[in-house]
Every structure is written in C-alpha cells, then in structure tokens.
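Example 193, ligand heme C.
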Amino acid sequence: MPPKLFLAILAGAAVAVVLVSSRPKAVDEVALQAEAAVLTKDFGASLLGILKGALETSGPEGAVDFCNKEAPTIAEGASKRSGWKIARTSLKPRNPASAPDEFERAVMTEFVARIAAGEPAVSLKRAEIVEHDGQRSFRYVQAIPTAELCLTCHGSELKPAVAAKIKQLYPADQATGFRAGDMRGIFTLRREL
Ligand code: HEC
C-alpha cells in the first residue's frame, strides 16, 4: 500500500473513532424494554400476592394497612435489587408521594384517551429514552387496569370502615370512583443511562 494511502486510512479511522466516542453511549433499547417488562411482571405479581393474602387474612380494612406499609417497601426492594427505579403512579393518586412527574402525566393522559377510544387498558405500554436536565434515562411505563377486586378500595361504594381507614391514612386520597376496566394508574420504571 502506498504510504499516503495508508496515512489517509489512518486519519480516516481516527476521525471515525472521535465521531463514535463523542456520540452518546449506544443503548440496547430492545434489551432494556424486555428487562423492564419482566421486572414489571414480577413487581405486579408480588403486589397482587400480598394484597390477596392480606384480604384473606385481615379483611379489607386490615389490607389497607398492609398496602400502606408493604407496597412502598416492595417497590424499594425491587428497585434496590434491580438497579432500576420501580414504582407506581396515577392521575388520581392515593399516596401523594406517588404523584406523577411530567413524563408520566403526559403518557397517562394519552393512555386515558386511547382507552376512551376503545383500546383495552391492559395492552398499553410505552418505552422511551428521555432526557431531562442533561440526564438521559430509559423509561418504561405500563398501564394498570382496574379489576373487580380493586373496587373494594378504589371503587365508588366503599364500606364505611374501609373509607374511614383510608381517610385516616391518606387525608388527600383521590383514588376512588374507579370502575372495572378503567386505568387505575401505571407501573413506571426508570434506569439512568
Ligand atoms: C385493601 C385495599 C386496596 C385494594 C383492594 C387495592 N388497593 Fe390499590 N392502594 C391501596 C392503598 C392503601 C394504596 C396506597 C399505597 C401507598 O401508600 O403507597 C394503594 C395504591 C395503589 C396504587 C399506587 C398509586 C396511588 O394511588 O398511590 C395503584 C396503582 C393501585 N393502588 C392499584 C390497585 C389495583 C390495580 C388494585 C386491584 C388489583 C388495587 N390497587 C387494590 C389500597 C388498595
């Protein structure tokens, strides 16, 4: 190979290296979405498991206490183990600490419109890279449909003792008046990139 050509190739390679390294880190979005979907499934199953167990052993009032203590603990544990931030949120939160951020609010507003247009809540999800204040994160959101079971504590006609317990623990509760099939909220997962 003539030396000039060799040098030109070298220079070209150097430019390519600079271009590649100055680009944001390559992200395997498909793998991240798959991982988030599995984590969501596990998280949802744990919550449903403790909810059903608590309803059986302590009745709905006792189960309110249980959700109050255990739901945040389960979310924290799942987050610590996985390196993701795993949580639930809602446009009508019960726990004010679970209020949505801008991204979550926008996605939920869109989901509500799609459900009103006939899509089933259970099919709705979204995965996206979001940049906020210079920090990029991978975000995964999945709708949580309201089932019959949920109406005991999130429906329109709560037993007075259940309503009183909720009022006592969550004076600012907004999470009643749902019907089966409504979107109760979303699972929301986030991983910094
Ligand atoms: C025994 C009462 C009870 C039942 C039944 C119940 N929940 Fe809840 N739910 C709660 C309580 C209490 C909280 C607040 C937990 C906390 O402090 O984080 C809550 C919080 C939530 C949240 C988090 C956002 C928010 O509003 O704070 C979602 C989402 C949710 N529930 C969905 C459901 C779904 C879906 C079902 C049915 C599968 C269900 N719940 C059944 C009591 C209940």
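Summary: The longest strand covers residues 135-145.
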